Amino acid sequence: MEIGFLGLGIMGKAMSMNLIKKGFKVTVWNRTLSRCDELVEMGASVGETPAAVVKKCKITIAMVSDPAAALSVVFDKDGVLEEISSGKGYVDMSTVDPETSSKISEAITSKGGSFVEAPVSGSKQPAEAALLVILAAGDKALYEEAIPAFNAMGKKSFYLGPIGNGARMKLVVNMIMGSMMNAFSEGIVLADRSGLNPSDLLDVLDLGAIATPMFKGKGPNMIKSNFSPAFPLKHQQKDMRLALALGDENAVSMPIAAAANEAFKKARSMGLGDLDFSAVHEVVKQHKD
């Protein structure tokens, strides 16, 4: 089966590489076409437009940055919608809001195509190691057809029902993650300013009930102020904003998430948006009142 792949950012590049490594024929597209070069060296073909990729492939996957990009790649000139048709499937693995997923789904199915939303839990390292958790919803037959591709990119796939549920699950997960990162940042700074060794804090946390891979993986670099992006802060803040909107829609009070969102917004105003989301640590460090 030939798989199309749209979007070769931090996540998409690693995911498409894993498809190639697992033996899939892959045709790639990226807005900046030079980003396709490394994939071509591995054996991928290049489509000059999203429409060209869809025309060539039975299943096309997209992994782009935000709702605006997800809509653009479908609806713009030379977009997915121009070539989607009966017998072709489109899988959007971007993190977007349920409304965006529904809009894309309606457009794809109106042309006879099938659609699955499949956002992922995991950032750069899990993407490279094919350890993503895939949160899928939509056309069940397309989901089942795409499972071999999902297995090449991730360690577990969930089918969550109708369109919108994948997006909702991803926003809930990232809301929790962003809130935890803020509390973790405050803990590291509090330990340091209380005269404790922050590295000792990491060791204590790793042995207790609140041990998490995120604390273990991010903590050492945070102590060193190393925020090389695995998951850019601007995307985390976008997800917090979308999660808060989902909370409003469902009348859920979310004061902790709201406070965390404000910290991420402050970090963006400090010019940290392209760094890893753990750079919210700098917001806590700069507050000395």
Automatic annotation (TrEMBL):
Reaction equation(s) it catalyzes: glycolate + NADP(+) = glyoxylate + NADPH + H(+); 4-hydroxybutanoate + NADP(+) = succinate semialdehyde + NADPH + H(+)
One GO location term (cellular component): cytosol
Domain 3-hydroxyisobutyrate dehydrogenase-like NAD-binding: 164-283
Keyword set includes Mitochondrion: no
A single GO molecular function term of this UniProt record: NADP binding
Domain of life, per lineage: Eukaryota
All residue ranges annotated as the 6-phosphogluconate dehydrogenase NADP-binding domain in the record: 2-161
Active site annotation, chain numbering: K170
Keywords per UniProt: NAD, NADP, Oxidoreductase, Stress response
PROSITE patterns assigned to the protein according to its UniProt record, in alphabetical order: 3_HYDROXYISOBUT_DH
Pfam family membership, one: NAD_binding_2
InterPro entries membership: 3-OH-isobutyrate_DH-rel_CS, 6-PGluconate_DH-like_C_sf, 6PGD_dom2, 6PGDH_NADP-bd, HIBADH-like_NADP-bd, HIBADH-related, HIBADH-related_NP60_sf, NAD(P)-bd_dom_sf
Function: Catalyzes the NADPH-dependent reduction of glyoxylate to glycolate as well as succinic semialdehyde (SSA) to gamma-hydroxybutyrate in vitro. May function in redox homeostasis and play a role in oxidative stress tolerance by detoxifying glyoxylate and SSA generated in glycolate metabolism and GABA metabolism, respectively.
Protein name per the record: Uncharacterized protein
Source organism of the structure: Linum tenue
